[in-house]
Amino acid sequence: MREDLERQLEILLDKQAITELVYAYCNAADRHDFDKMRALYHDDAIDEHGKFAKGPAKEFLDKLPEIQAPMAVLHHNVTTINLKLDGIRAEGEIYLIAMHQVKTNDGLYDVLIGGRYFDKYEKRQGVWKFSHRSIVADWAYPANPSRIELDHPFLAGAHIGAPGPDDPSYGFFKLLRRGER
């Protein structure tokens, strides 16, 4: 009975570590934190990110600053996490809704995307990281021109999020340090 309880606890802790990895990915993407993003993948990982990348994650991560440069707003929301573990390997189907506001020479436009990540994870040297991540788009809702209103009266007096170190979280948090998992 004790061994079974210990095994269940180990599975629970592994699932929590993978869940935190998924959340760290969303935070790194939304804050344009490229160092943090790079730390989430194993060196030999694969990333399939539509037209942006299909192959070694290192290549995707190298292109990420250019990909995200026109993104005025990124907001990834994980809604459902389905995980299956097998020792030091795991797979996940992660549902998400991601808001993108994109800057162009013609102005701003929005794309709200609903989809899933098909993930494979590996635990190496005691740490879970992505070994393969593939984006699956289920739907997209575009708005051109942008419908985002950061000057809406409901937002009056609120801190306004921003990519990178201009985001209010960098000055607010002491425990949730930016650039770390």
From TrEMBL:
CDD domains: NTF2_like
Pfam families referenced in this protein's UniProt entry, alphabetically: SnoaL_4
Residue ranges constituting the SnoaL-like domain according to the UniProt record: 12-133
InterPro entries named among the record's database cross-references: NTF2-like_dom_sf, SnoaL-like
Domain of life per record: Bacteria
SUPFAM superfamilies named among the record's database cross-references: NTF2-like
Protein name: Nuclear transport factor 2 family protein
Organism of this sequence: Solimonas terrae
